[in-house]
Each structure stands twice: as C-alpha cells, then as structure tokens.
Amino acid sequence: MRNLKIKKILITKAPCALDLGDGSERGLYVNQDYILSKLWKAHRGISLMYTYYPDDKEWPVRACNIKRDTASKGAWDSPYENYFPYRGGREGLLDGEPFSCMRDIRRHGMDVVLTITIDPHLKEEDIILLAKDLRPYGRVLLRVNHECTGTWFCYTRRATYKEIADFFVMTCHVMHKYAPNVKMILCAGAWMKQTGKLEMEDIFLEAYKAADIWSMDNYLSLHWGWPNDIAKKSGKTHASYDDEQLYQKFKNTLYRIRKITGQDKPMVLSELNADGDVNGPFHQAKKLEIFIKKLKADKEKWLSAFTLYQFRDDGRLGLEVTDPNNSEVGIEQPILKTYRKAMQDPFFNRNFCYADSSKKKLELPVKLRWTNSEDAEGIELEIPFKATPHFAELYFDKDLIPMNLMMEFGGWWFYKAPGVKCIDLMSWFFQNKLKEPQTIKLRIFAPPADGMNHPIGKNGLSDLTVDGTKLMKLPDGDYLYNYYTELKSVPEIRIEYAPLAL
Predict the structure, then answer these.
(1) Ordered alpha helix ranges (H), 93-191
(2) Torsion 415-416-417-423 (CA) sign
(3) pLDDT tens sequence across 125-172
(4) pTM recorded for the entire structure
(5) How large is the greatest C-alpha to C-alpha distance in the chain, in angstroms?
(6) Is the pLDDT of residue 345 over 50?
(7) Residues in CB range of 137: below 8 A, 6 or more apart
(8) Nearest-angstrom CA–CA distance, 223 and 227
(9) In this structure, what DSSP letter does residue 223 have?
C-alpha cells in the first residue's frame, strides 16, 4: 500500500503524564520491550533508583551484599541505601547500569526519571562529574535524596536536615550550569493538618525555590516493614489511608509550597501505589482506581504527573510480582489491567497536533526532531482498513532498516529497533476487532537510535540536507535537548483480509 498522504505532526503533553517505576531496592529492572508488550503504551518517563556513596569503604558493593556481624533490623539498616550502586561519577563506568537502562528507555521514546540517594557530604566537584554523565541523555528528571524530611534513609543519619537542604541547592546550581538538560525534582515534606504547614518548611525553603519540579511520595497503602516481616492484622508496620484525606493532603502540599515560595512549578507524585500486602490484590487495584477517578474529576488539574511504583516488585507494590523461583519472570496482578485501562484514557494521553507544513503536501525526505517524550516531530499516515485483517505488517526498506522508530497505531505504541525489517501490527486487532471499514492513523517518530544525543558531527547533522538545502549549523548546546533524524521513506504496509490457505 503506497501513495498515502504524509502529514507532519507534533507530540505534546498529556493533561496528566504517567511515569513508571522500573527497578529499586524491591525489584530488578525490566526491559522496555517487555513492558511495552504488556501495557501497549509508552510512558512519559521511566523511573530508576540508584545510590552513590563513593567515599564509603564498602563501596561499590550493593548494601544487601555487605558482610555484616548482625542480622538486619530494618529495610534501611545498612551503611547506605539498598538501591543499585551508581557506577558513573568518580568510577566513570558508563557502559553498565544505570546508563544501559537509560539508553534502553530513550530508544523507546521515553525520558529518564532518575532518583539517586547521594552522600550529602560530597563536594561540588563530585556533582560536576554526575552532571557530565547526564549531559547526553536529553531531558533528564533528576530526584536527589528523596523523602528528605524522613528518618528512614541512610543519608539522614549522616547529616543535619539543613545540610541536606543545602546539598540539594548546591546540586541544583551545578546541574543548571553544567547540564541544563537536567530538571531537578525536590521530594520533601508533606502538608500537616495539625499546623497547616509543610514538614520542615523553613529548613527546605531555599531548596523548594531552587528546584525545577516539586514532588512528594505517599502511598495509598503501604507495608513499610517489608521484607523484614509479614503484614498481619495485629502488625504495626503497615497502614491503609483514607482516600479523600490523602488526596486533599496531596493538593494542600502544593498549595503550601506555592504560598511559601511565591512560585508556581510543576507538581508530581514521584511514588504512588497501593500495597497488595495491605489491601490484597483486588482492593489494591480498587484503591488506584479511586485515586484516578478523583484526579480526573478535579477541575483544578493541579497534578503534572505521577509515577506508578513499580512495574515488577519483589513484594506486592507492582503491576507484576516477581516469581520467587525466577526473578526474570513476573506474575501479573489485577492492578495491571486497571492501570492499562487508565493509560488508554485521554486524560493520561499525550496529544498530537499538525505542524504548519502539514497544510501542504509533505515531500520526503523530512527532518524529524526528538526533544523529549512531550515535544517531538513525527509524520502521520492514514491507513484504510476494509475489515479486521488477517495480516497487518509494516516492512522497512534499506533506508529504514537501520533506523530506530517509535510508532503509534490506533492508540498503541510499537517499537522498531535498528536492523528490524518487519513489525507486526496484528496484536492491536486481537483486542480491537473492526465491525465496519475504518481508517487508522499510523504516527512515526525517531528517538535516538543509541539512546543518546550527540554533539554536532556525531549524529549526521553536519551532512543533513532537506529538499536539497544543507542545514545550517545549530547553536552550540542544541544537542543537549534535541536529536535529529532524516526520514527518507515510509514503511510498506501489507494488509491481507483472509488466510492464505486453509
């Protein structure tokens, strides 16, 4: 099927974005191909959690593997947090985690949401090294020393809260100077009904002002005694919270931050879920459904995004739980179906609009820009279908085979890795049988093929021409934000409406 009209389109923000946690002290990283096949849609960002204590004698052994003389008394009873060690910075190991995961995320058209707990006594020169590590990854949402008004994380035993706040402000200044593509998230205290104030709001005031994004963590229910005990009715290491009171607590936190800072910045919930250990798997899904219903009905539209924690969990805080026999296998929970349904809702969906150039016939080749998951250029084709097909496939020619593509078809996202020659669209029709002829839009985007942005001259920019005109050299630093690709052709579409033989 050829000669379809090509339009240039732009991808824009959802009313409320969805991010997804993928790996932490409670579970291993799951590759984005698997997650996409289970959820059918790409997220705005994928959240990773790491820790960085390069001055410790035990470093870089993961905390749970440090030899101890006594048994662990709690989840954070260790020299440093039990996230996987961040091996960049001083070590400069950029091939392993988290960088391999970051490249996987960006290849699949999503942004990196990176949490790092950091020794708050590190100096500016150490943070400069981290900033340089993050420069090639486009928009990075960086959360440093989260839940910083609490007492449970190891870094709170090493420094005063004033030192922790000052460290965050210093980190903001470094990132803004050396890696302006990085947006800093402050995850601090919540609003307290008794006082009408935030926890430690005076201490963290300058940190709120320095941050790019405000955040808080609060679960709808949580078993914080995991993995050291089993949640039982008589236990004191778990709780389930009133849905309406908690929702108002979220909003009041934002209102109070606005008041004390005189600023208005995006608000996110960086960790949110209900715990199946507390509510059981069926009501776990119901708790999330109640929160989503409240959020959609709220006319104020106060929340920029929330992160569902997490995809696969060793306990019961995930869309899947880890198979105890094999950590590479996940067991789907009822909440996955609830969450997947929410992902299809327009409230959580990024939007598409037509570029001015789409008003006239768009000729190939065309230059595509990928800035981030909420700001990118692509093309759109309208594919007519007479009925539910038996075969619906995309074939890629010699110009397209090397390319890295994310494609939206009928509301689902499909990924084509470099080297892949054919993508099967039939999984969409397994869930969406056509009752009558229908035209379905295929939208194609080109995020970074290796998951990284590169300075001019390393990703073909210097030789790129469009309509016979050589592109002008872009301003220095453009690569921090943008990745460009030249699309020379479109896929060949194969549609068959009957079996080839019976």
Answers:
(1) 99-107, 124-134, 161-178
(2) positive
(3) 999 999 999 999 999 999 999 999 999 999 999 999 999 999 999 999
(4) 0.94
(5) 75
(6) yes
(7) 102, 106, 112, 181, 451, 452, 453
(8) 9
(9) E
